[in-house]
Amino acid sequence: MAAEKMAMRGISKSFGNVKALSGIDFSLGRGEVHTLMGENGAGKSTLMKILVGLCRADAGEIRVDGEPIRLSAPREALDHGIAMIHQELYPVLDMTVADNIFLGREIRRPGFGRLNLVDVRAENAKAALLLAEMGLDAAPTARMRDLSVAETQLVEIIKALSQGAGIIVMDEPTSAITERETERLFFHIGRLKKAGVSIIYISHKMNEIFRISDRVTVLRDGCLVDSRPAAELDPESLVRLMVGREIEDVYPGRGRIAPGEPLLTVRGLSDGRKFHDVSFTLRRGEILGVAGLMGAGRTEMAECLFGLRPKSAGEVAVRGNVRDIRSPRDAIACGMALISDDRKQKGLNLAGTVGENIGLLGLRSFCRRGVISRKLEQAAVDSHMSRLGVRAESSGTPVAALSGGNQQKAVLAKWLLAEPEIMIFDEPTRGIDVGAKHEIYLLMNELAARGKAILMISSEMNEIIGMSDRVIVLADGELAGELGRDGLTQEAIMALASHL
Description:
By secondary structure, the protein is α/β, with parallel strands linked by helices.
């Protein structure tokens, strides 16, 4: 291993009676990519929060370049050359892209004494160079709230890379970006390694791990399971270490299906900005995948179908009847559900409990003479928590305290209470571990077998191929083509997505 850059020794942390970390040892070599793995709830995020000053350990020490350090705030971590790209994005939405990149380390205008004014022109110019280098087509002056999730994630990556840190923690950095942007990120990772920068990489994507990792450490239930060179592992052994059991097929097959009648028919749908003239049919009992590069208009199309975005042209028919869907209320009344690409911002009430989130869409059915029956609500919530395997101490647990996989299951449970027939999954497994992914895939197959119609948007090519019965591909906001199972390959999808 390269000379040691950072070491965490005997790190322990408890939250109340819950032991989050138990005596963890974790080290990082100079110019090394060390991947940290484990199921959601294994302790990865807690360990990294301690490293970047967001959380204090109960026991243990951290050394950087051989010297012990004490961290109580992210600013102190930055002072020691430690930066983090967080999985959950928290940009300042009403500030510009440049403002967010240089937040907390603004470029000041010289010659203004105590006024200490920000040099906006210099920030915009430097931000433009950084954006161009990463290949992100966004203006430095654009407001963050106008960017997509994928574009926001790229801005966060740019911000961390621009800080000149010697240690960078990347928590699921490719969860919302396409293969093309991932390739660009890997190029920058290679360049950083050559410059001696050390990277802690957290991901659930096996192809990424074996491509860029020098070493892999696995946590399970807050304990260190193993740490060894990536060359000594393979996907099967890594899954066993993570989940403590075999997972036969990540993408459980359903065999050939005979789809039923059309439940959703889309003709010439446009929003006038992000996508144009999209037409397709979604049938009962099938999973229709939607593929495309970042900016292709996939999420915007889903939001338009669900009434979150106004349409400028086209029509939507549900069970053969044209419907005017102008709001999510209209969509829900048509039997539709949207599991969005950003569960924290769009799918959950983070201030509420697990039960309050799951029961939200079923409140009307729990009412008796205008009063909510808590008994009926609790029974329904408990039933759906059990059915989907939501792991929480109780339905009264704050939903913000759950792992990403369990939060996603809570979102699904909420929608299933509404008994939809048409389900739109936008990035259904973003940022969740391989075990939780497998459970989501099994549920999707079960729903399709029960006659639900599923529209699945995903940036993961293997997920699209592994789960879809058919795939439509969007490119530059237009429908580029459709692929059946027989012609469903990465090359065929990329050819359509790239207009080749």
